[in-house]
Amino acid sequence: MPPALKRLAEIFLTRAPLYAVGGVVRDSLMGLECHDIDVCSPLRAEEVRELLSDSEFEASDKSMRLGTLRIFGNGIGVEYTAFRTDSYPQGSGAHNPSEVLFTSDIRLDALRRDLKCNAVYYDILADKIVDPLGGVEDIKNGVLNMTAPDVFEADGLRILRLARFKAELGFDIAPATFESALENAWRVKDMAAERIQSEFEGVFRADKKHPELGLKTAHVDGFETLDRLGVIDMVLPEVAALKGLPQPKQYHLYDAYRHSLKAFEIAPLKLRWAALLHDVGKAPAVAAQGNMHGHEILSEQLADKILNRLRFRKSEIKRIKELVRWHMVDINGNMSEGKLRKFILAHTAVIDDLCDLMDVDAIASIGAITRPNRVRETLKRMREEGVPMSVKELCVSGEDLIALGIEERARADVMTALLEDSALNPILMDRDKALAYLKKAAERLEKDKR
């Protein structure tokens, strides 16, 4: 614990002990790094603000109704919550409690948390663990146990958190806890899309959370846990529709679902959504026409629908859609060099990621890359030749267009044409040759005006 936290606890001690709780305690007991610190005590939020008013610490409101504050000072920032008990609306997966009662009983506070391993407290000044529910034993045994039988009835978000913690920590889920989560998984449907996206993102990067644990397929473990709980059927039905869908055995080791999951497993972090969704169009393609031809177009459309439904940023949706749409480009290896170069220029923003996704797709299909990636090879040649990859990299500029009298409305088209032709004819990378090209373009435009 940072020294500043001990100083904060000293201030609290005039009224009540201050405890660290949750992930920071759990991870510390496991010997893991933890950067987010949650603290708690029996003091209500308004009492804490008053207590810190003349100190070196500052408290800002987060949710007074829930008794939560952000406390800053002496180089630390922690989240504070008063001991409390929560009640949730019946028959929903709502994340926010409908009723909050503050308490001085640490056991009652522990019972309102989700898992016993997250309900272990550390008395900062006394330097001792307080374990009301037996969470330390669960941490030692690597098991996830719910704190109370109604944990998942109270809050649907906890079902997603269960899968994420299992993946990040490599723990097992106790049978009764799994059964309860399975019975209540339907509550995920009532959650805000942003919260679902956030927890899925946590699962997708679970292998990166604690690299010291060496859980290299933690993200797959988390996804498969969500699948066993029925969450994938609800949140990503387009992906679930690929289950059992056969693929041509000369090109694939797995059915469409296992292939997608294998691609997701081996893809780098920034490509995992694209890898998971790259073939979602196969099921509707087979249903409509009896084969998978053109599935990449349907996959792009479904990816757009899925990512918008989960409230992804527009820029991220655009990037993933572009990758999904073109992951089959030049699949037969018969695209001309010129077309490949123009394609690369048109997709420069994602071209390296696209090459990686194509390789991931190949490995997930038959276990290896068995033929050259011509897009990557062409891209390598273009870079070696110094081919400009954007209008900004051309050896001429907008000032040259103005000097030649090319009207503003035509300038973008002229520069795009020069960019494409430079990729096909490297002589245009010479400034004099490029200016001559622009001059001819200006003459053609003038002639067309007449």
Task: Report on this structure.
The structure is a single chain. By secondary structure, the protein is an alpha+beta fold. The chain has four domains: 140 residues, Beta Polymerase, domain 2 (2-Layer Sandwich); 94 residues, Hydrophobic Seed Protein (Orthogonal Bundle), CATH 1.10.110; 118 residues, no CATH class; 63 residues. It is 52% helix and 10% strand. The chain is built from 24 helices and eleven strands. The chain has a seven-stranded mixed beta sheet. The protein has a two-stranded antiparallel ribbon with strand order 6-7. β8 and β9 form a beta hairpin. α14 crosses α20 and α17 packs antiparallel against α18.
Short description:
The chain has 450 residues and is an alpha+beta fold. 52% of the residues lie in helices and 10% in strands.
CATH level 1 name of the largest domain: Alpha Beta
The chain-level mean pLDDT equals 94
Q: Spatial order of the strands in the main sheet?
A: 3-4-5-2-1-8-9
Instruction: Write down the domain tally.
Output: 4
Mind telling me which CATH architecture of the largest domain this is?
Answer: 2-Layer Sandwich
Tell me what portion of residues adopts beta-strand conformation: 5-15%
